[in-house]
Design brief:
Helices cover about 20% and strands about 20% of the residues. It is built from one helix and three strands, in the order ββαβ. It has a three-stranded mixed β-sheet with strand order 1-3-2, with helices on one face. It is globular and about 40 Å long.
Length: about 90
């Protein structure tokens, strides 16, 4: 994993629907960006793991949530319908 290129992901927090939601400090040494679909069962399972990270590492980790609906109706990156109510 260390040999993989780093990717800069813009994070826009602020509380409006168009922005991302951050849990934790912007200055935490570990920044995790999670792309999620609110209808996705795997995303729900990952939530439990993320809560565990927050509990275990406290201020050392920050999690940014990016809404990434898995349906072509509102996500141009997808080629077929997915989660009907994700948008």
């Amino acid at each position: 994993w260390k040999a993989q290129p780093q990717v800069a992901i813009p994070v826009m927090t602020g509380g409006a629907l168009e922005t991302d939601y951050r849990r934790g400090s912007e200055t935490a040494p570990v920044q995790i960006v999670e792309f999620l679909d609110f209808e996705c069962p795997a995303c729900r399972a990952l939530y439990r793991s993320m809560k565990g990270l927050e509990s275990r590492f406290g201020d050392q980790v920050s999690i940014v949530l990016k809404n990434f609906p898995l349906d072509q109706e509102c996500n141009a990156l997808l080629e077929q319908p997915g989660h009907r109510y994700a948008c």
